[in-house]
Amino acid sequence: MVLLDGKKTANDIKDEITLEVASIRKNGGKIPHLAAIIVGSDGASQTYVASKVKACERVGFNSTLIDLPEDITEEQLLHEIEILNNDTDIDGFIVQLPLPKHIDEQKVLMLVNPNKDVDGFHPTNVGRMTLDLPCYLPATPYGIMELLERYKIETSGKNVVVLGRSHIVGRPISILMSQKRKAGNATVTLAHSRTQNLAEVTKNADIIIAAIGIPDFLKANMVKKGVTIIDVGITRVKDASKKRGYRLAGDVDFEQVHKKAAFITPVPGGVGPMTIAMLLKNTLLASKHN
Ligand code: GUN
Fold first, then answer.
1. b/e map of 161-182 (b: 16 or more CB within 10 Å)?
2. pLDDT tens for residues 129-145?
């Protein structure tokens, strides 16, 4: 079994970006600038956004964090997005999801200028991705593809089963891996909560991407020997034995499944750091375009 070390791979990518930024700086070019909007005080979201800002510092980007209260109106939030759309120093920005229930997520994402949409969530970027056109790829699927590629895991002609049809991970990774591209050319099955005989489906998979947000869902009796496992889940599960009161659990029962896997991502330290690295890559791309 080989552990797919997302933390190390993400650090390699960050080192590559750091070198590029140093060269931009030396040549008097524009330093990439990422902004992040966060609404409310959800602990996990706050942690993710803080990691994104810290990663900017690490590679030499400029960053701006816009921390808004839970009770902000939709109109006020849309106004903040307009400001970022019009700020010529900001190359790209993200709105951390989920948003509070009183805010229409689609309306918010639709307002982001597609040229600054480094999360790749705007319908223009989703449509362009679907049509194999140049675009910003959503960071988590992009990170998964990059991890598969850097570990030279064959995907061409393989059976890939994606668990979960979310707009952020499941749906886009199912599209990307079916495309004619690096880490693509797979035969993809997108399984979800209505899928019947799920274990029969997953047992046929060469590669499983689990993105459903149910801790320890995938068990050893649901996979074949030699499978590659990408675990996107990262749920806080109460655990009194831990100082912070919780543990981070993936969608895969790692203790069971790793014994049958050829390759597997850990949680934490797998997909999470890759998401951040790819967001930086998208921001660098945006700063070159803008
Ligand atoms: N919430 C969970 N994943 C993501 C992500 O990749 N981007 C944003 N903006 N919010 C998220």
1. bbbbbbebbbbbbbbbbbbeee
2. 999 999 999 999 999 99
